[in-house]
Amino acid sequence: MSGIYLHIPFCKQACHYCDFHFSTSLGTKELLTEAICKELFLRNDFFEKIRDNDNKLNTIYFGGGTPSILDDVLIEKIVMAIHENFDTSSIKEFTFEANPDDLNKEKLTFLKDIGVNRLSIGVQSFDDENLTFLNRAHSAKESHQCIVEALHMGFDLSIDLIYGIHCSTSKSWSKDLDYISQYGIEHLSAYCLTIEEKTAFGYWLKSNKIKNVDENKAIEQYELLANFCEKNKFEQYEISNYAQKNKYAIHNTNYWLQKPYLGIGPSAHSFDLDHRYINKSHNTHYIQALHDRTAHYETEFLTVLNKKNEYLITSLRTMWGCSLHKLFDEKELDQRQLFLSDIQRFIKRDLLSCKNDTLFATKKSKLIIDEIIGEIMF
Ligand code: SF4
Q1: Three-state SS sequence of 138-176
Q2: Could you give the domains of the chain?
């Protein structure tokens, strides 16, 4: 099981909260597409070199930035390059991230034609006041229109929503969730608004133009989300990801289960079980390196400790939990014992639970699991 991730680093405008790698200047989109195609060619033996890998490419994921902003002809070039360089006969899931303002009938038809079967739509809120505050480029009306059209065309949909937004209320958040059930959406990614330093919100917070996210509001809305999910049979299979009827995102689940993946494009990361490869995150430097055939990524060798920590970080955020058998081999009994003694302080406070040699976050700790992980890492 493995996947290819394509990072398309362009956006129409900068959302006030976003610290992803993207550029709002689209002048290099042709050159960048060329560089991405080159990278696909240069790394076409990536999966073959991985130990114990079945070599089956199961997922393709276009993320960003905003992949839907790219012209059809450029998207098509990249998809062709994937087919030319990899065995795509076992693809189960082809996800495309898109913003509502890009998803008209023609774009949806095009995406269907190139094999996309799943759309991850950046709705964030169905309330125009929230959208304006976040500086999103679309309106609530455009979200409704594209969801109706995409469902009609048979795409699997995942909707991104943000809670804890300053001008949101319990009422507006409940309304957002109601739309999810009304439309019969089976996959939801819900994130609490966080204010990162180098974003517009980050600068405004520093200059007292806005306040930080209200923690009580965030908790209240998280609880509304938890109730909604229970009532509508959504499983929280990862801290921020919810699915009905086992409609888990295959591509992202593979990350969390430590499966290999190849990341193409500026700032993309790859993982081959023993190394992490980190692509140059500057668009022009990335394009230049591919053009000159000089190194366009850095390689980081993963030590046993690095791997243990990565497993802890990802697995404790999932409903499958962290297997102690996987974390410690049979020669590490002392280490395992020490670890178990250390985590008792969290088990006693009902912040971690241990069942069948597997460690889980509890209902009480889900919102603070990253802090707990930070305290028990090796
Ligand atoms: S569209 Fe997405 S990637 Fe682009 S600025 Fe907004 S949140 Fe960030």
Answers
A1: CCHHHHHHHHHHHHHCCCEEEEEEEECCCCCCHHHHHHH
A2: 2-255 (3.20.20.70), 304-378 (no CATH)
Q: Hey, CA dihedral for 335, 337, 341, 346, is it positive or negative? A: positive
Q: Separation of 10 CA from ligand 1 center, angstroms? A: 8
What phi, psi does 260 have (nearest 5°)? -70, 150
Q: Which tokens is 153 given?
A: 């065309």
* Contact by Cβ (8 Å): 15, 136: yes
Residue 292 has pLDDT above 90, yes or no: yes
In DSSP notation, 249-279 reads: -HHHHHHHTT--EEEESTT-EEE-SSEEEEE
How far does residue 19's CA lie from ligand 1's centre (Å)?
Answer: 8
User: Which whole-number Å values give the CA distances from 126 to 45, 241, 283, in the listed order?
Assistant: 43, 19, 32
Q: Can you tell me the distance from the alpha carbon of 286 to that of 283, in angstroms, rounded to the nearest whole number?
A: 5
Determine the Cα–Cα distance for residues 308 and 316; give it in Å rounded to an integer: 12
pLDDT at 245: 87
Q: Are 202 and 196 in contact (CB under 8 A)?
A: yes
> Which residue carries 């971690």 as its tokens?
352
Confidence of residue 21 (pLDDT cuts 50, 70, 90): confident
- Is the pTM of the predicted complex or chain greater than 0.90? yes
Instruction: Dump pLDDT digits (tens) for 25-43.
Output: 999 999 999 999 999 999 9
For the chain, the helix, strand and coil percentages under 3-state DSSP, each to the nearest 5? 45, 20, 35
Take atom 3 of ligand 1 and give the residue whose Cα is closest.
65
C-alpha 238/C-alpha 137 separation (Å) is 28
| Ligand 1 neighbour 66 (Cβ under 6 A) | yes
Ligand 1 mean position to 161 CA, how many Å? 13
